[in-house]
Amino acid sequence: MAEPFSIRRQPGFTTIAILCFALLYLPIATLVFYAFNAGISVAVWEGFSLRWFQEAMANERVQEAAWHSFIIATVAALVSTIVATMAALATTRTDPYPGLTFKYAFINQPLMVPEIVTAVALLIVFSRVKMWTGYTGLGYLMAAHTGFCIPFAYLPIRARLENMDLTLERAAADLYATPWATFRRVTLPLLWPGILAGMMLAFVISLDDVVITEFVKSAGQETLPTYMLGQLKRAVTPEMNAISTVFLLLSVVIVTVFFFINRKKT
Amino acid sequence: MTDREAAVRLAAIEARSVSKVFTGFRQDSFRALDRVDVTIRENEFFTLLGPSGCGKTTLLRLIAGFDFPSEGEILLYGKDIAPLPPYKRPVNTVFQNYALFPHMTVAQNIAFGLEMLGKGREETAARVDEMLKLVRMEAMRDRRTSQISGGQQQRVALARALAPRPKVLLLDEPLSALDYKLRKEMQVELKRLQLETGITFVFVTHDQEEALTMSDRIAVMSAGRILQVGSPRDIYDRPSERFVADFIGETNFITGTVKGFAKGRAEVALPGGAVISASVPEGHRPAGTVTVVVRPEHADFTTTAKEAALRGRFDHAVFFGTDTHYHITLADGAPFILRLQNDTTDELPLTRGEAVMIRVAPGTAQVVRD
Questions:
Q1: Lowest CB count within 10 Å: A17, A114, B292, B338, which one?
Q2: CATH classification at residue B68
Q3: Concatenated DSSP letters of A163-225
Q4: How confident is the model at residue B5 (pLDDT cuts 50, 70, 90)?
Q5: How far is A90 from chain B (nearest CA, A)?
Q6: Total structural domains in chain B?
């Protein structure tokens, strides 16, 4: 009777676990499987083919949407990471003061406010700005994505900063390094894995976004997710499966790199 | 070194009426240093000794520039450095956790300060070699700091701090993370480095033995104040405060009554009636009931009533290898420990409760402030 409580020995544990994994991964496996279908159906297997990958690649609208997704995610990841790095430095390299916790909440607002609220708010504001300026380019999407990417970049950077030994910066200052030299020679190199992790996370989050993009985009501007959403309203072909599969592969690669960067050192 | 030589030596660091009050969000204000005055001489091994929370590390941080005094000034060779940031002070620190840069090699760590000072490539390389040799770490120059042992990290931290030839080297409990044997080795090593480089060392520790063996002078601190400054021998033999006597070494405290006072010596009547002559701290005028300190090794048994300063009853003896401690209860009920070296004699044949008479070596008793 001395055995400690183990959740694994409870009745039904195995069943629930298998069910959860099946529900998570079976649909994705099916999606990937039919991406290689030779036929036009996403439900009836007619043999192996790379036809839908070729068709997706050749589709000019897919190309354009992919380019939009890529450029928006790149800009959003870069800008949000720079902003998040500065925010993380400002909120960790200080003695606690009244309002600091509020500041954390404020920076992480996009994690807490329902996305649809932000989306509607941005739609209203940007439609005014579009009217006043006449500019209807990708800038709005880049700005919106940068905004909601900040907390995703901020969290890993802050975690890294909080684990960093503060005496290292003190030691640098003691050895005649000015605050800027200390940042460049000690803080930044040690923070780098956190910054990279934050940047990749921001990139993936931007790439994946539908709700805010759908509300903010000007007419005819599509990213890959909004293009796919549009296509789903018509007949679905395995082309969607092919695009999704590429998406999946990209995410897995990025998350794997992220994992290895974070595992190294610390 | 004679007192005259000491007087001629320059003051490397002077703290003048330095106070430090910490006030913070969600915490009460705390006075870590309370009007501290101290002078640290050029080329000396100066130790700040005290229990944790006594303000010794705060004082070190003020000298390094990691914190700024609330009041008072800190002079480095006569110049007030209190408002300067750490990177503008010709003072380097060896940190308690060493704080070696983990993304740099041993050699890169040592070169860091020199590079920041804008030294040329050749000068830096030569100095790094010199430092590696000084701390006997030549073989480790291209290792990462995570690939070397604690004792080796300690040496690298020393080399890194000494490389820019600081006017003063600050050491913040640098030996506390090492095991006993390594600590003993590093004590000798530190003393050697200080003598070889001629740099003023300011060493912070809570370990009284470390302080006694290494220092030229010691400042004993408690509750944000410096209680006494002096050579290890001064501090040990002539403690001025009860706290100092208690913190350093083993001590017997005896309550006595002052019968007379002249020329820095007091005639004190001890419990049991005997009157002994005890020295008095400078500037102190004892009167009435006072505390007298007698070190265990300065007492001996006697069978001559005329020699007996104290009387009591024997309790038990504790064997320590090189010496034996005899525990005695004095006439007024206070405990007393007497230490005798185990040379050729066997343990004294005393039985529990036996009446004993204790002689105190002339000139060793000391009146302390309570």
A1: A114
A2: 3.40.50.300
A3: HS-HHHHHHHHHTT--HHHHIIIIIHHHHHHHHHHHHHHHHHHHHH--HHHHHHPPTT---HH
A4: low
A5: 17
A6: 2
CB A36 within 8 A of CB A246: no
Which tokens is A51 given?
A: 């036809």
pLDDT tens per residue across span A155-198: 999 999 998 888 999 999 999 999 999 999 999 999 998 999 89
Interface residue of B101, B128, B160, B170 to substitute, partner A, most A CBs within 10 Å: B101
Q: Which pLDDT does position B286 carry in this prediction?
A: 86
CATH number of the domain within which B329 lies: 2.40.50.100
Is residue B38 in a domain?
yes
Where among B237, B260, B278 does a domain terminate?
B237
Q: Is the pLDDT of residue A205 over 80?
A: yes
Residue B302 has pLDDT above 50, yes or no: yes
A185 with B97: Cβ contact below 8 A: no
The model carries a pTM of 0.82
Domains in chain A: boundaries: 59-263
B99 touches chain A (CB under 8 A): yes
Residue A48, classed as helix, strand or coil, is strand
Q: Is residue B244 part of a domain?
A: no
Last residue of one domain, picked from the residues B206, B237, B268: B237
* Chain A contact for B86 (CB, 8 A cutoff): yes
**Cβ–Cβ gap A165/B24 under 8 Å:** no
What fold, for A59-263?
Answer: MetI-like fold (1.10.3720)
At A266, is the pLDDT very low, low, confident or very high (cuts 50, 70, 90)? very low
The residue range of the domain holding B98 is 3-237
Same domain membership, residue B270 and residue B198: no
Decide if B221 contacts B206 (C-beta within 8 A).
no
Chain B positions in Cβ-Cβ contact with residue A185 (cut-off 8 Å)? 112
- Closest-CA distance, B123 to chain A, in angstroms, reads 17
Question: Given A96, A174, A178, which is nearest B92 (Cβ)?
Answer: A174
Tell me the per-residue pLDDT of B229-282, one tens digit each, with 9 for 90 and over.
999 999 999 999 999 999 998 999 999 999 988 888 999 998 888 899 999 998
Q: Which of B86, B100, B101 sits opposite A174 (nearest CB)?
A: B86
Report the share of chain B in percent with pLDDT over 70.
Answer: 96
Shared domain check, B291 and B220: no
pLDDT tens readout for residues A70-103: 999 999 999 999 999 999 999 988 877 888 888 8
Strand ranges across the sheet with B299-302: B299-302, B355-360, B310-319, B323-330, B335-341
Residue A193 with chain B: CB contacts under 8 Å: none
pLDDT for residue B142 is more than 60: yes
CA distance B139 to chain A (A): 24
For residues B191 and B258, state if they share a domain.
no
Cα separations in angstroms, A62 against A18, A57, A72, A247, A254: 36, 7, 15, 13, 21
> Looking at the structure, do residues B177 and B34 belong to the same domain, yes or no?
yes
Integer Cα distance of B281 and B290 in angstroms: 12
Q: pLDDT-derived band of residue B107, with 50, 70 and 90 as boundaries?
A: very high
Contact B141, B106 (CB under 8 A): yes
CB contact under 8 A, B112 and A185: yes
